[in-house]
Design brief:
The chain has one domain. The protein is built from three helices and 28 strands. It has 410 residues and is mainly beta. Strand 1 and strand 2 form a beta hairpin. The strands form seven sheets. Strands 9-8-13-12-11-10 form a six-stranded mixed β-sheet, with no helix packed on it.
Length: 410
């Protein structure tokens, strides 16, 4: 007991040595709060307390944040407003912005929420799609602007930091409830109540939208067949779809096959890094859909007469000192600092159907249960995944009634 009473009398150099072994600035804050002598002796941590993404884990008692720098340990920080604690989260952006579907009144309200400032930017809950109509005097059938329809956002990203002055363009992968349509992509100026559907829409399973990222002025959309669509937003109205935004599309045949089998056990994520576009492929175990391995590819130019065949995915054998975090719409690359290189993944099995591995939200907006236990880290082959976050597969409490896990970007 006498020894325990002397903890607040540890020499300052010992305390600073202990603090130097804490990789996460948040842990250093907790250390300085233990007692007055420690607070006085321990240097204040850097102003930027969050240097790598946190994993928002949708626990039953409210979200908690898994920390990569702390080896996956959770920070139980009360960062979310009350009405967002039970939201469905579907992406994030730098500066602690979260894409959230707030529940209330029997429907979801899509919102971009900042956890630092509390600022909120409403997102479209409807989109103006294209429908086939037989119009007198025009070839039949003819694509014309259709009526507004409710949508469910599955993943989203932005062209720049969020503003509502018309400069920031948003893109999202959507599904429409009560239809059998495959996931598709829409675009809008941030702050606009209406999103418009992109061009070059194909409803075949192999060309369904799987992930999206923004790089060098274009939104890249990865299909289930691992082909690419590259969308450019133009500052001009679209005569067919309306609004003040027109989007044009280039298609690149980059996948292994235009029509992959529906049960192909892998998911792809687009990651901008060092001016290049990477694709991380996460392979699943067929038994339960859990992560089995990851592979890395880079988009490279190819000499070909067909413009659609001028890009290809090339296998990369090394992460070259990078730390990658992957998730639908919010994958990022970081130069390794304070921890080993590797690919950090989250459990998006609810995003993919466990049997067919196609997008889950085909008929409804809320599956009622989101699994979130298959989160961890994996190096490139022959390495196997490590489940470094608190909730592990096959444990109780590894599903959520309100949201899948999502990365919170610093």
């Amino acid at each position: 007991m006498a020894a325990a009473a002397c903890w607040d009398e540890l020499p300052d150099d010992i305390l600073r040595c202990i603090q130097g072994r804490l990789p996460c600035p948040i842990d250093a804050v907790y250390m300085g709060a233990c007692c007055k002598s420690w607070h006085k002796a321990v240097p204040k941590p850097a102003a930027r307390l969050m240097v790598l993404p946190w994993l928002l884990m949708p626990l039953a008692g409210g979200p908690s944040f898994g920390c990569i720098l702390s080896g996956g340990a959770c920070h139980n920080l009360d960062l979310l407003p009350e009405d967002a604690r039970g939201a469905r989260f579907f992406g994030s952006y730098e500066g602690k912005w979260l894409f959230a579907a707030l529940r209330g009144g029997g429907r979801e309200r899509h919102t971009l929420l900042n956890l630092c400032t509390g600022e909120r930017i409403p997102l479209p809950d409807f989109e103006y799609g294209l429908v086939f109509w037989a119009v007198r005097g025009l070839p039949s059938p003819t694509l014309v602007r259709g009526p507004p329809r409710p949508v469910v956002m599955l993943a989203a990203t932005l062209s720049s930091p969020p503003t509502v002055d018309g400069a920031c363009v948003a893109a999202a992968i959507l599904n429409m409830p009560r239809t059998n349509r495959w996931p598709f992509v829409c675009f809008w100026r941030l702050g606009s109540p209406v999103a418009v559907e992109g061009e070059d829409i194909n409803t075949a399973p192999g060309t369904a939208a799987q992930d999206l990222a923004y790089l060098d002025g274009r939104f890249f959309v990865l299909t289930k067949g691992e082909h690419l669509r590259a969308y450019t937003a133009l500052d001009e109205p679209d005569p067919l779809r309306g609004g003040d935004l027109r989007v044009v599309c280039d298609f690149y045949i980059t996948g292994r096959d235009r029509q992959l089998q529906a049960g192909e056990p892998r998911a792809g994520y687009l990651v901008p890094s060092r001016g290049e576009l990477l694709m991380v492929v996460k392979e699943w175990r067929r038994a339960d859909g859990a992560a089995a391995a990851v592979q890395l590819f880079v988009l490279t130019p190819v000499a070909h007469d067909n413009p659609e065949k001028t890009r290809a995915w090339t296998r990369v054998e090394s992460l070259d000192g990078r730390l990658l975090v992957v998730g639908p719409g919010c994958s990022r690359a970081y130069e390794r600092t304070g921890c080993d290189e590797g690919v950090y993944f989250l459990d998006d099995r609810t995003y993919y159907h466990r049997n067919s591995f196609d997008a889950y939200f085909t008929l409804r907006s809320d599956p009622g249960e989101f699994v979130f236990a298959d989160n961890g880290r994996c190096s490139l082959p022959p390495a196997h995944p490590e489940h470094c976050f608190p909730v592990k597969p096959d444990e109780e409490g590894c599903s959520s009634s309100y949201s899948p896990p999502v990365w919170l970007l610093p």
